[in-house]
Amino acid sequence: MADWGLPERFQDVVMNLEDETGEDLLDESSMQLLQVLVDGSIIANYCVAGRQADPALLEQLNLLRRRLYACDIDLAELCDEVVADWVEWGAVLKLPTEDMAERVRSANLEQQLSGNKQLSGNRVVEPFEPPVRVLAVDDDPLSLRGLVRHLKEAGHEVHTARNGREALAVTLKLRPQVIVTDLNMPDLNGLDLCMALRRSRFGKRIYILLLTGDSNEELVLEGFEAGADDFITKPFIPRVLLARLRAGIRLVRLQEQVERDQEIHMKNAIQMTRLNRQLKEAANTDFLTKLPNRRCAMAHFERTWKHAMDTDTSISVVALDIDHFKRVNDDYGHDVGDVVLQETSRVLRQSLRRQDLAARMGGEEFLVICPGAAIDVATHTAERVRSAVEENVVEFGRFRRNVTVSVGVAEYEPGILDIEHLIRMADGALYSSKELGRNRVTIASHSSTD
Asked: Locate the GGDEF domain: which residues (predicted)?
């Protein structure tokens, strides 16, 4: 499909047609495309099977018929149209199709599905799919029973309440999508129920249809002002009631779809924020040691330097280098070298003050920025790091030994021009440690500021 140039969305939908495990990753519009393919597959299977359609396929067809009924589409007519189109394409593609057309014509889909029809008098009432949670409210048991019967015949999940207060309690518990309520009831009537529901966040989403035996215009207006979505007079005609409900259910479904889309957009926004944060962290973090990288260290140093200059406070840096690291790589391999870097980074991080920042500058070189630290504090920190690294035994494969670091320390003092100057001073002290035998801490001399 990619070679044909079809959009990625179409490719994702087709891949999910056979594998339902990825459906949660599809957005609302992609799910609709997937449903079209599923429905088309059901119709295609029936066109092939005809009279031989098994109960499972007939049940799928029955569910499809219910969904199409809500959209005023007749399944049998749709199947006939599909077969007619297929015969036309068969002629173009030189494929035999007449047998299939005859199988569909002789199968009589309506007769095959008749066992699933629910009859009300001489009228067939098609269930909605999927069912909607409807709360029927009426203080008259006889009227309530009739209302419930019509709603259940339409395929709804029906719950009942005998007055407004009971309806509120049921609503809080079951969260109905639609409420059909009588207007005139004792102990919280239909108008009061509407107003009470509309005051809550969930109640504002419910589709409310009021029933009344009084068609007075003022009463109707009062009902709409109270929050009712529709109004129907009693005794009602069942077909009219169900038609009104279908219109309301379309609004409910649309609102639910909007909410789902908003939820998806919110999740996407959260994921995007998280991804951006992860990307930012990755851009500022050394992959191997998980320490800040040079880029992050220099940005942090700029801020720390400015604060020190503005507040006239001390700032020091510590430069470290792992001794004989090249020999470790040459003798034991880069895998061992990576472990040495990771272990040294771990010990380094654990040996610092809370406000210090350690970073890997490249290779086996590290830098520690010590805000607010005079030379004695920074030197003490450097010695603590050196000692901890020396005492730590690194074990990996046939490598089992400790490593050491050479360290240089420098503090800002008048005459130091900028950050790079201070780092060069610390590097110079580090190289002095190397020349003096390694595994030691050297303080940058005042003369090195020149």
From this structure: 313-446
